[in-house]
Design brief:
homodimer; about 230 residues; alpha+beta; Jelly Rolls; Arc Repressor Mutant, subunit A; four-stranded antiparallel sheet; about 25% strand; elongated; DNA-binding
Chain lengths: ~230, ~230
DNA sequence: CAGAGAATGTGATTTGTATCACAATTTTAT
DNA sequence: ATAAAATTGTGATACAAATCACATTCTCTG
């Protein structure tokens, strides 16, 4: 039997700490599933029996709020999709949906737990990632609640450019409604700000493609919140 | 030498998983410090060299936002104060301040790391707590951004009553300014809502003491966001 | 390729809450 | 005990953004 996890080019940082033998056993306890854009990967309120890991594509994590959905964050490949929801509670506390066509590995939770006890470098890396995630979520929340819409939209554009797509030019796969849910703004406000930025020569929009023309200005807007 | 950590009545859930020997060694790697109300326990931007743990009292975690401070959460005894900030980054990403006179144990980070590798029940519990913390922070953020001030103030009152003080009658040690920073509202709005609740017979206020008279109503207001 | 449905653009109106300004009260230090 | 400082209460005003109501433009799908 081949060691498919060892040959996999999309390992998480934690998985690079695993031995050949551990990766071999992981291969037997892991199932890769393809999802189409828009497909639900994890559903809030259902039982969580596997650790989900995004191998390729793009996904959004979202929670049901008192008024409307909130997109908590966008997850790019080589990251776990639902560690907190899998370990913190028996029932999933949030939903995950594919934003682009994606491949997701489902790792058996029992084996994942075993890995945590077997390999300290692995468990250490998981802890570090959880810590980083929490700090990031604090930071995101401050931005969301204190900045005004222009600042928040500037934030997402910079995040897309610097972290998600790693390019000044990218195709946004998320509609303005969801963009609004991600930064806590209405669909209409997102539309207005995006067009304002375009008119001001900060970005160029053609269809779903966005090009950042003046990153310094975006950073200014992001920093000062307007 | 006495095993002070073993005799300690304020162990974290994770610490209850430690063996007698481990607790003994912990005693040698842990220092208890007293803080007065208002004292700074951890300062954002400084190096983090210890894991902080709240033994008694009450503390608030807060971050510097673009406009003003945001109180991220209130921590009650037998909980770690800065796991994410200690493990996620070399530099503290948030500040912690004593809300009441408090005792804090500072655990040497090297020994804490050693404990994580030595005792799987311990590290597992830490992971579970980190996961719960992240989910909680998502939930808090949704509430903060989607509910209006009445709903958010109802939320804190319920949190104080159900989780922090575990009583329908308690003395709020946080002023309205900070209460505002905790729920993202202005000091004036908090004052108005608190007095509205009082006039409506939902709570009774005398000085810093608050008594919840109609918890069902508060839950209604919290749930519906107004 | 036409027609339906989804997504986006844009003005007018409404609204919740921040901000300002100051009074009143409580707490703290001398 | 008393002045000073901090905290709280409350009206008036300002303002950012949500909501509403359509128009327009994309994008599937039969």
């Amino acid at each position: 039997m081949e060691n498919k996890c060892m040959l996999c080019n999309y390992k998480s940082v934690a998985e690079t700490k695993l031995t050949e033998a551990e990766l071999g056993e992981l291969s037997c306890n892991c199932l890769t599933v393809s999802f189409k854009k828009g497909d639900s990967i994890i559903r809030q309120g259902t039982y969580s029996t596997n650790v989900a890991y995004l191998k390729s594509g793009l996904a959004k994590i979202h929670i049901e709020g008192p008024y409307h959905v909130q997109v908590v964050r966008i997850v790019k490949p080589a990251n776990y999709l639902g560690l907190p929801t899998t370990f913190g509670d028996k029932v999933n506390q949030y939903s995950v949906t594919a934003v682009e066509n994606s491949e997701v590995c489902f790792i058996d939770i029992t084996y994942f737990r075993k890995l945590l006890t077997l390999n300290h470098d692995f468990s250490n890396q998981i802890i570090v990632e959880l810590c980083k995630g929490e700090i990031e979520s604090y930071q995101k929340c401050v931005n969301r609640t204190q900045k005004q819409v222009r600042g928040k939209v500037a934030d997402v554009l910079l995040d897309f450019s610097d972290n998600i797509y790693r390019s000044d030019k990218f195709v946004v796969q998320i509609n303005q409604e969801d963009l609004g849910n991600l930064v806590d703004a209405s669909r209409e406000s997102v539309s207005r700000v995006l067009n304002d930025f375009s008119r001001e020569g900060i970005i160029r929009i053609s269809g779903k493609e966005v090009e950042i023309l003046n990153k310094e200005m975006l950073q200014m807007i992001s920093k000062h919140g307007w």
